[in-house]
Amino acid sequence: MRPANRLLLWLLLAPAVLWLGLLIVLPHLEILMLSLRQRVAPHEYAFSLQQYATFFDEPLYWHTFARTALISLLATLLTLLLAFPVAWHIAKVARGRSKALMLALLLLPFWASEMVRTLGWVILLRGSGVIPQWLFHLGLTAEPVELLYNDASILLGLVYSSLLFMLIPLVNALETLDDSLVEAAYDLGGSRVNILRQIILSHAAPGIAAGSVMVFMLTLGNYLTPVLLGGKNSMWFTEQIYTQFITRFNWEQGAAFALLLLVLSTLMVWVGLKLTGQGFGETLRRT
Amino acid sequence: MLTFPDLAIDLDVRGVSKHYRQHGKDFTAVDDLSLRVPKGAFCSILGPSGCGKTTLLRMIAGFIEPDAGEIFIGGNSMRGVPPNRRPANMIFQHLALFPMMSVGENVAYGLARRGIAKKLIQHQVDAMLERVGLAGAAVKRIDQLSGGQKQRAAIARSLVLEPTLLLLDEPLGALDLKLREHMKLELKQLQAQIGTTFVYITHDQSEALVMSDFIAVMNQGKFEQTGTPQDLYYRPQTAFVAGFVGNSNRLSGRMGAGAGSVAQVDDGPALFVSPQQAFPPGRSLALFIRPEAIVLACPPAPLENFANRLSGKVLSLFFDGANSTVLIRLDDSDIELHVALFQNGFHADIHPGDTVSLGIAAEHVLAFAV
Ligand SMILES: Nc1ncnc2c1ncn2[C@@H]1O[C@H](COP(=O)(O)OP(=O)(O)O)[C@@H](O)[C@H]1O
Ligand SMILES: [Mg+2]
């Protein structure tokens, strides 16, 4: 490469490198340092693994993490189940104008901020909100019931805010599926279930993996939805991090939790991809 | 229509039609077609692209329900029978091999759907792959196969199910010319060995002529003529067939007024035409003369045995080995004719600018009303 070209390359890369360095690498290094020290006296710190030990010793913390991971997994699965038929319709059934319209409709809610969208659910679900009032007036419930502040409402909000991130990789994956493969399988005696499993899902597997990883990570790291729809007792792990940093002003503990979230979730994604036979690098490239 | 009195009929298409709505108008893609294919035959449906061949084939395979008419395969009505339960298999235009499976798994796919034991499947797959010349390729990925091998894998995948009928939708279309020529012969031989009834659709008349036992020529949703390759080549019944099957010189003209079958070519000579059909005087005609039906004399000679004797000048020479032709302009007209050159050394010293005599027998000038 000629020197001038190399300079140009560096100039072009500079914003990305700066962004990566300043916003991702540096804070994480800082967080790592924070998490590995303990205050022994005012303004005096020593190296310690105490913050990590606390996570495993105190059941509340790792229970919260396990719960967060489990609900995130469930939300990912539900999102996949809901998104797949929609993605199939957009990729394979809809044509021309109606296809463009459907994609636009999917994007439309994202013009409002996540806060507003989630508050929309609050308005619908809270005790004096729209749905409980209807149920009451229709005589289906004896009094207006509180539909907010439970696991189901958290799941609902998480699935709702994740749908698009699942749909886009799924639509992409299904669009590249040659219709004649499905027809050929049908022609050779394949049943619908078998064609779905052996041809369609196996073709769409990288897209499914990409969408699932994205949704899982976003859900696990989501703060707003669990707090707004799950209330104070939503027991979401990001809430613990928030509490440590902001309420308790225990930055060391918060930093350890943040790193644990990063490492454990990466580990879970890696194991998940290994179990389903998808390449880690390959999937990340698609997200 | 051909009849086959003492043969079992594997495919019987009776009055089948299919309409589409295109730009708000009703459009007939397949128009009241009937076709009978006897057991073990290689039948081609030949027609220009867009004439409705794929639509017809997909109705036979079961992917499209006909608007009218009925289809019988092996004597059984296929009304309401889905593709996965028809005794017919299809080779798709782009083969549609499953890229997520190995060659062996592709071939095993249909057998496994029938719930056959694994060991038996393995055995049948190996035998089938060997038969199509892919022995040992079972573990290969699809993208490791060459174009011709993919072709054979697709055929193996269907034939291993021992269908009554194999339907092929222009499977050679994607191959390069040389391989296509080779696969034509290979496919024909395979069909003769295995004896499965083939219904082969193509827009390439040479494929159809080489491979088929009989051909249905299709145009705008209808069959123009059904017959053996020789029938279509030597005895075309419509102007479309005469023009589409093989190469021909096409002239336009008008029936002469006098006795006998003489046609006046527009701005050209009068020609004695084949007396097959009688036309009223003045009727406008399309005349077809095959390049090899014209006899060339160079230097010019009387050619007394021919009803039509013409003279002209060589414009250009197209050398293509056994398929060489010369382009000749007839004297006193703008009519140009392609004439086949026989490469027996007889015409070796013919050159542009030479004056030649041409002889054409009356039965080689085919006339059709237009
Ligand atoms: N699903 C469809 N909707 C509308 N028109 C169609 C459809 N499928 C085919 N056609 C039309 O029917 C005609 C015949 O198509 P096809 O059977 O594919 O022809 P071929 O295989 O001979 O090229 C074409 O004019 C095509 O545009
Ligand atoms: Mg076609």
CATH superfamily of chain A: MetI-like
Mean pLDDT of chain B: 91
Shape of chain B: elongated
Q: State which percent range the strand residues of chain B make up.
A: 25-35%
Sketch the major β-sheet of chain A.
Answer: 2 strands, antiparallel
The total beta strand count of chain B reads 20
Could you explain the architecture of this structure?
The complex is a heterodimer of chains A (287) and B (370). Chain A is mainly alpha-helical and 287 residues long. Chain A has one domain (52-171, 201-286): Orthogonal Bundle (MetI-like fold), CATH 1.10.3720.10. Chain A has helices spanning 3-35, 50-57, 59-93, 96-107, 114-125, 130-137, 151-175, 179-187, 192-220, 224-230, 237-247, 251-275, 280-286, and strands at 37-41, 44-47. In chain A, helix 5 packs parallel to helix 10 (224-230). Chain A is globular and about 75 Å long. The mean pLDDT of chain A is 90. Chain B has helices at residues 53-61, 103-113, 118-131, 147-159, 177-194, 205-211, 229-234, 239-244, and strands spanning 9-22, 25-38, 42-46, 68-73, 76-77, 88-91, 165-169, 197-202, 214-219, 222-227, 249-255, 262-265, 270-272, 284-289, 294-297, 308-318, 325-330, 336-340, 355-360, 366-369. In chain B, the strands form 4 sheets. In chain B, strands 6-7-8-3-9-10 form a 6-stranded mixed β-sheet, sandwiched between helices. In chain B, a hairpin with a 5-residue loop joins strand 17 (325-330) and strand 18 (336-340). The radius of gyration of chain B is 25 Å and the shape is elongated. The two termini of chain B are 22 Å apart. The structure holds adenosine-5'-diphosphate and magnesium ion (MG). Magnesium ion binds at residues 53-54 of chain B.
